Amino acid sequence: MRRQFVNDPEDVVPEALEGFAAAWPRHVRWNREPSYVLRAEPASDKVAVLSGGGSGHEPLHVGFVGRGMLDAAVPGAVFASPTAMQIRAASLAADTGRGVLHVVKNYTGDVLNFRIAGELLSDEGVRSDIVLVDDDLATDTDDPDGPGRRGTAAVVAVEKVCGAAAERGADLSELVELGRRVVSGSRTLSVALAAGAHPGQSRPSFELPDDRIEFGVGIHGERARERRAFGPRRALVPDMAAPLLRDLDLGRGDRLAVIVNGLGATHDLELYGLFGEVKALLEDVGISVARSLVGSYVTSLDMAGCSVTLVRADDEFLDLWDAPVSTPALTW
Amino acid sequence: MRRQFVNDPEDVVPEALEGFAAAWPRHVRWNREPSYVLRAEPASDKVAVLSGGGSGHEPLHVGFVGRGMLDAAVPGAVFASPTAMQIRAASLAADTGRGVLHVVKNYTGDVLNFRIAGELLSDEGVRSDIVLVDDDLATDTDDPDGPGRRGTAAVVAVEKVCGAAAERGADLSELVELGRRVVSGSRTLSVALAAGAHPGQSRPSFELPDDRIEFGVGIHGERARERRAFGPRRALVPDMAAPLLRDLDLGRGDRLAVIVNGLGATHDLELYGLFGEVKALLEDVGISVARSLVGSYVTSLDMAGCSVTLVRADDEFLDLWDAPVSTPALTW
Amino acid sequence: MADQISPAHADLWVRGFAAAINDADDHLTDLDRRSGDGDFGTNMVTGLRRALAALPEHPDSPGAPFQALSDTFLSHSGGTSGPLFGMWFRDFAKAGHGTPALTLAGVAEAADRGWATVTRLGSAKVGDRTMVDAIAPAAESLGRSTAEGLSLEEGLRAAAEAAEAGAQGTSELLGRKGRTSYVGDAALGAPDPGAVAIGLFFRAAHASVTDGADGTR
Amino acid sequence: MADQISPAHADLWVRGFAAAINDADDHLTDLDRRSGDGDFGTNMVTGLRRALAALPEHPDSPGAPFQALSDTFLSHSGGTSGPLFGMWFRDFAKAGHGTPALTLAGVAEAADRGWATVTRLGSAKVGDRTMVDAIAPAAESLGRSTAEGLSLEEGLRAAAEAAEAGAQGTSELLGRKGRTSYVGDAALGAPDPGAVAIGLFFRAAHASVTDGADGTR
Ligand SMILES: Nc1ncnc2c1ncn2[C@@H]1O[C@H](COP(=O)(O)OP(=O)(O)O)[C@@H](O)[C@H]1O
Ligand SMILES: Nc1ncnc2c1ncn2[C@@H]1O[C@H](COP(=O)(O)OP(=O)(O)O)[C@@H](O)[C@H]1O
Ligand SMILES: [Mg+2]
Ligand SMILES: [Mg+2]
Ligand SMILES: [Mg+2]
Ligand SMILES: [Mg+2]
Description:
The complex is a heterotetramer, with two copies of chain A (about 325 residues) and two copies of chain C (about 220 residues).
Chain A: H1 12-23, E1 28-31, E2 36-39, E3 48-55, E4 72-78, H2 84-94, E5 100-105, H3 108-123, E6 128-133, H4 154-167, H5 172-184, E7 186-194, E8 212-215, E9 226-229, H6 233-248, E10 255-262, H7 268-284, E11 288-295, E12 304-312, H8 315-322
Parallel strand pairs in A: 3-4, 3-5, 5-6, 10-11
Antiparallel strand pairs in A: 1-2, 2-4, 7-8, 7-12, 8-9, 10-12
Helix pairs in contact in A: 2-3, 4-5, 6-7
Chain C: H1 7-35, H2 40-54, H3 63-76, H4 81-96, H5 104-122, H6 132-147, H7 152-169, H8 180-183, H9 193-210
Helix pairs in contact in C: 1-2, 1-3, 1-9, 2-3, 3-4, 4-5, 5-6, 6-7, 6-9, 7-9
Bound molecules: adenosine-5'-diphosphate (2 copies) and magnesium ion (MG) (4 copies).
One magnesium ion binds near residues 37, 39 and 79 of chain D.
């Protein structure tokens, strides 16, 4: 049976946020009702960068609130979008008069609530715009009316880079353009060895036979379209990296930021091994790994799994990536 | 079945170290043979601070190499001490002429190999001394000939604080005194909901019935002396915190650093909730939580579990804790 | 019979709608179980219970009760329908703000705006098996009734009938938006719960001006 | 019969010890299975295989082969015995460095120092059922033999016999250090594997000066 350190399952998120804010008093403060997280020392005279989505992906997004990254994060219930009113309130609190950038992972509920929040804000004279992050190659279909690719770990790169640009004074339209450019150069594939379990639920959200992996899994416990054979890591890495390279049309001379991300219960020993192999594979075809992030940044509760994200990196991107950042989960 | 992203189990550690070094080229470099990790830019004219132990506890210790913390880390195989020659080589590489502080978690193999390394170094004219970290209250017995309390998460506080003091120019004997003082004011208790599994092994190192937790578990997959009933988190927190308070003889007016640590597969949502409750409990009895660290810093592979560490904090401790640090796993 | 919707009428309308949804809870949940994930009834009942608690004691405009409804739904309701209803109610709040009473033309304009809002946000067209299949005929009916100079009571009755007919019609539609698009023809034969709720919304409008003829309670 | 241990004798000693451990692999592992975790034989064999590969072609002092042995054990051998043996060999390396040959007195001093080292590091006393139970009698015997002016061959024979007797004696001891302390009287009746290995070490010493009488091979 899967078990967790929790009280009532419905209190998991507010209790965690209370502890989170208490653990990082110099970085963030938490507004309980409506629930959102702000920088402890709000910035002035810059476009506010805000993100949000369901909880259960920590450190995303609350862990990225701080100087050089997000001004506010809006957490929903586990795997459920925050409401439009939460987003509105957080945006009003973070706005310095120069508008609010909403970084949104592409899921129906999130998109709907962020769009509504945008309309509410516009009625109140506050400018906002959305960068929609849709990097998950596993959900790439040709249907133009379909929901499109899901948003996963590339959101960290978008938040980092837009956060840095906002800190330097970029205006809302520049940030939107920058964010969309990063998104268009980002693709992710995720794989699971075991599903996570919702707090208080004893069963993981799906069961996998011992010789199978969930290939192209999402970060909300949903199953993937495909199961593949379980094998050694070195057999998996090309299966994950090659489609990303192809879809981004990458080749000799290109530069990347690479995010190797744990989905919750995957150990650093595994993640670093994965990263080493991804890097070797890329360098073998003449692509340089200019920057990297290896760790559990976008989780799916206690899922055993990983994702590999490739992000095209030009000089501007690298410069913004390297800019100082000071948040609970990312500091340099 | 428990599965991981690995190739041959015996390659797990070197492959991970290779990837780790590739992911943090500005922070560290890895010497493959003998295996140790050094700062990318070695410090000059300061006492070198070095730690080491079995692997499987990442980010400990390699993740703490960098300015303000460790000069070198020496990783053994999974849950096995590094050899004396590894420690010696790393110490020689890190020594700037002012000696080497060895921060050692109390386990027979580690103690033996660090002691031997110290003798080897002394023969070569290099001064070294040991701070033995033995914070695990679960293994406190009265037997003076016994192995004593194990060393667990308090080691992070010792490395942080001694690292900062070394950076400020403290000499070896001052660091030893400081480290031992921190250790004597530190106690930890750990609890597991599910054991971790060695890379390549399908079974976790012990099985727990659904209504039981392993109370006082270690970080090497060994079982605890005691099993207790599984219950809501708010019932567990006093069971963990009260014995620590008692053993450290803490009371109204005392100040602490608190480390709430995940043992590998425990989610941030759980850890932050735990921290919030620990903090509330301490403040209820007039003890102030002056600093905190909440996250997975000292893991036991993919064990589902947590530890709570209390560390007495005086002004000097707080000042050193707050000093800048720049490592892969801890930066401020 | 009232010929305008006073603040008290609007209050009755909202309370009547809440009561109707409450009575239909199990039925709506069952419909959502056939075409989605079965949480529709509960989501609506929970949202409306909160909204009732937030209703102003003495609404100062016919927009005020709808504003409370909208705010609660946008603040607390999840799923797909929660925020869409929140925005739908919001257009009724806007229409009723700053005026002592809403005419039939005002209601027609609110419904038109609401239709546009729901379409803009959810991009469902008529025939996609969503609440839009009840909203569209009701809005069109209100427009016709206004043009033809019908009384408030007549116009709201026609709107309710149009919405209910539109909702019933969804029984024969294949879902193309939201969760119901995943279940294919398994949902055929039962109407879309969101559309049914829109029928109840206009039925409550009509009842508020007939039952509570003097706008008091 | 040689009266001093030349570099070539030392080389023979180390190789002879490795061969003896190799032959006793299963037996040693079995002993460790009874009193510990069953990895002793494998650990020793692996360590010695590496050490043989690292032995200098032409040792320039009798310390050189022991230095190679010590370095490999300290570099690669895990468990409790690996590093202890590494330090034990190291005292023989130190004794043999910078001298063309080791006398019996030199061997006695190395054993004394080694005993002190193992005790300092592992804090086992005689009677705790460890390698110390073979080391101590061998060291004492070497000291006596030196004082009594015995020949190298006689002194080493006596040391080997003392170590072997000490090892045999551990069969009756309850473990008080290391893993064997956890198994209680289940280990009684079989000797401690570490002590047995020390017996083989001194037996190889004796053989190196008798079999390879001229110090060549
Ligand atoms: N894109 C859309 N546009 C308008 N209405 C929609 C859309 N998608 C779903 N709906 C409405 O939402 C109702 C389901 O609501 P709800 O159960 O809250 O959603 P879910 O549980 O699928 O998130 C449907 O009956 C339908 O009327
Ligand atoms: N404290 C000690 N001092 C000296 N020798 C010891 C000590 N503890 C164990 N030993 C020796 O080590 C041998 C076991 O070695 P090994 O199998 O490598 O250790 P383990 O597997 O327990 O780590 C024992 O037979 C004993 O001779
Ligand atoms: Mg539903
Ligand atoms: Mg739903
Ligand atoms: Mg053993
Ligand atoms: Mg062993």
